[in-house]
Amino acid sequence: MPSEAAGPAEGGGSEALLRELETRVRAVVGASSWWERHGLDGAILALSLLVLPAGFLCLRADNVLVFAVGLVVLGVSHYTLTVKGSHLATHGALTKSKRWSKIWTVFFVEVCTAFTAEHARHGHVKMHHGYTNVLGLGDSSTWRLPLLNRYVYMFLAPLLIPVLTPLVALERLRTLEPREALRSLTLIGLGLYSHYWLLRHVSAFQSVGSALLCMLVTRSLLAHPYLHVNIFQHIGLPMFSLKTKPRRIHMMSLGVLNLPRLPVLDWAFGHSIISCHVEHHLFPTLSDNMCLKVKPVVSQFLKEKQLPYNEDSYGARFRLFLSRYEELMVQAPPITELVGLQ
Ligand SMILES: [Zn+2]
């Protein structure tokens, strides 16, 4: 049975609303310095690269505490480069230069994440952002694994992410042009092999197995929140059909949810994925820091115009998904009928 959501504006009104919001946000961006627009997020990514040698060296230590610090440094840096770095790069939010955006996307997605830049851009930017919560297109269904029960999915499945990511990339290489496929394969291989090589030669791991286990541990350090956040922010909210999808401003205000600020995740995933996801879906080329800066403007605007501004805590979403797992993650989501928003 379709659920219902009401909205205040019709087609033309929706476009005017979006333009009004864009004008307000553009004013904030225009008044911001380069450091605020790009510098701060670039510095976080640079720092994540610069601490890598210290992280690998800590793993040489016999002292358990120093070893654990090494694991945390490498794990958090891995997620900062692969989630925050890849996400901002694919959106072109790191720099205004198209050429550099492409180079950064290839570096963060292929070398660091072991995935293909082409599929990351297509799946995330074109489909998920272009058709947010539209069934069969950008409905987050790639995150559904109906075969798994709720506990296996929420607690164990995240550990598979570092293993599945390069395997899915390999499977998708055949859909790429031969030149692109060769580049992706080479860079993914280079990223994985250099991680392994550093563990054997800098961290002095004695066996292949222990080095591979360490790769798995650091690459899955924040896999749980990564998987959870990806489902918490869209699934369970209104879903649309391609024919009756609402105008952009309604699509984003109805179909996207913000979590509160969470320091480790703000750092590693970025504000645009945690507390400013609504702002990010409305203005996807803004950097994490700028999403945070325009957040008061966007939230006040949506509330002023009586549009939804979804917010919930990590704990509340976690409990919701555990208790209504069958309905949210196994069954096909119902389409929300909207009146006057298309
Ligand atoms: Zn995005």
Protein architecture, described:
Helix 2 (34-50) packs across helix 4 (64-90). The chain is an all-alpha fold and 342 residues long. It contains 17 helices and four strands. The protein has a two-stranded parallel sheet with strand order 1-4. Strands 2-3 form a two-stranded parallel sheet. It has helices spanning 11-30, 34-50, 52-58, 64-90, 98-112, 117-130, 150-156, 161-172, 178-201, 208-219, 223-232, 248-255, 263-268, 277-282, 288-304, 314-323, 325-330, and strands spanning 3-5, 257-258, 310-311, 336-338. It has one domain (3-338). The longest helix has 27 residues, at 64-90. Bound molecules: zinc ion (ZN). Zinc ion binds at residues 87, 91, 124, 129, 280, 284.
Structure described in brief:
The chain is mainly alpha-helical and 342 residues long. The protein has helices at residues 11-30, 34-50, 52-58, 64-90, 98-112, 117-130, 150-156, 161-172, 178-201, 208-219, 223-232, 248-255, 263-268, 277-282, 288-304, 314-323, 325-330, and strands spanning 3-5, 257-258, 310-311, 336-338. Helix 1 packs across helix 15 (288-304) and helix 4 (64-90) packs across helix 5 (98-112).
